[in-house]
Amino acid sequence: MSNGSSQVASADRGAWKSKLGFILAASGSAIGLGNIVFFASNAYQYGGGAFYLPYFVALFVIGIPVMIMEFSLGTMTGQSFPMALNRLVGKKGEVMGWFTMASALFITMYYITILGWALSMMFGAMGGLLTDPAVAPFTPFETPSGGPSATAYFFGLIATWKPMLAVVTIWVLTVLILWRGTSTIEAAVRVFVPLMWVFMIVLIVRGLTLDGGTDGVLYLFTPNLDGVSDINVWQGAFAQMFFSLSLGLGTMTAYASYLPKDADQINNSLLVSFLNCGFEYIAGVAIFAMLFVFALNPAGSTLSLSFFVIPQGIAAFPVGVKLFGTLFFFLVVIAGLTSAVSLVEGFAASIIDKLQISRTTALTMVLVPGIVGSLAFALPQIIDPGLSGNGTLGLTLLDILDHWAFRYALIFSGFMQCILIGWVFGADRLRQAANKYSKFHLGPWFNWLIKLVIPIMLGYVLVGTLIEDLTQDGGLYGSLYDLNAFEWLPTVIPLVWFVGSIALAVYLTFGRPTEQAPVA
Questions:
Q1: What is the pLDDT of residues 451-479, one digit of tens each?
Q2: Superfamily of domain 3-128+144-382
Q3: SS3 assignment for 182-232
Q4: Model pTM?
Q5: CA separation for the pair 8, 358 (Å, rounded)
């Protein structure tokens, strides 16, 4: 490679102007749609207080150690995720890194589609979403609802082409925030992250001032030790923590690579983890207050809770319905946008480091397929008018891909990171590197967390989930939906994700030569 191309890439990588900017960006990446609603949904599903012990075990046993590992990869090498693994463990690490980044790109595509729907719902909240009866071109919603129905409004919305403009808008905003690298990312998160906290606190105040709002908070914080013996509670807590902290996506390594080598990554990991979990708890307070006031039973998914249940609760407010509805969806959009920025940056930084190209070229290479993919998930063609599944072609594509890519890619990435770093590079070498510039020193116990404890936990969840998916009645996930001429989707979609990710990983690893200096 020419020195000129290397200088271009190095200049485009940039650096954080301050530690605060990095912490805000990393916590903004961790805080997303899942923090606002998925934590509350899990806590409700697993009995409120029964969720706490497994949750905190997951935080300290899995979340913080893996974050220390991912942050340390960035500062030790000054490289993004695939290239950091290449420098530490060679080509086998790089191919794993690119598989992770390819999976993250698939996730980014449909994540931005969801944000486009949220932006459309935000504008709907300014109008009649939370005040007027709604209809949708599906059998359950063909007649006007008796009152405002967020569910009918949503399905009516996604059966039109309107959200596609919102999806493109979210992509444009994401790329604009990334245009000048760390400088524009830092400028955006200094506004967005504090706003997320402010708006969530506003929702807490509103929820607690409603009659019965404190009952929900008491349920959330009342321990129920009977549930602790349920293995599903532990599995739910581990999955929640891994997804919540944006681990296994390569984003944390990319962000950490813009820090100086003497950055205290143990302290940074603690700060980001506690900020993320603190936000989850205040979100839980706000949401549980509304759920109990309006006697709502949250469905298990992020999408249903954020688009149907919470808006329906806001619609029942005695005053300020449009204001609080708009504020809630604005909160969803900015929380999701900070996560989308980190997802795109993780992939863009990786191809900058690998191909030695400019940031503008890298963002273009992500933007073009990204928009195409996101628009595919917004396709409004009705394939299931009876709503046995998801109704439209786009939402069906999203649902099935989410089940496979999001459910397996992050945990598999975390599992393989621990194996490669723990056994090939050496967990003790990683621990010494992290301790070198840290006020808090990790003991030898950290080595065994990375080498044995975390891989066993993640491997158990991974294998158990796969067995459940492959042996369940009715075939693969989505096979029981009424898909008409699209019955092949449940088989083809996971293959496209898995084979496509492997093919891209192999091509970028072995088809594109890399010049890397070894790590001392």
A1: 999 999 889 888 888 888 888 888 899 99
A2: Hydantoin permease (1.10.4160.10)
A3: HHHHHHHHHHHHHHHHHHHHHHHHHHHCCCCHHHHHHHHHCCCHHHHHCHH
A4: 0.90
A5: 6
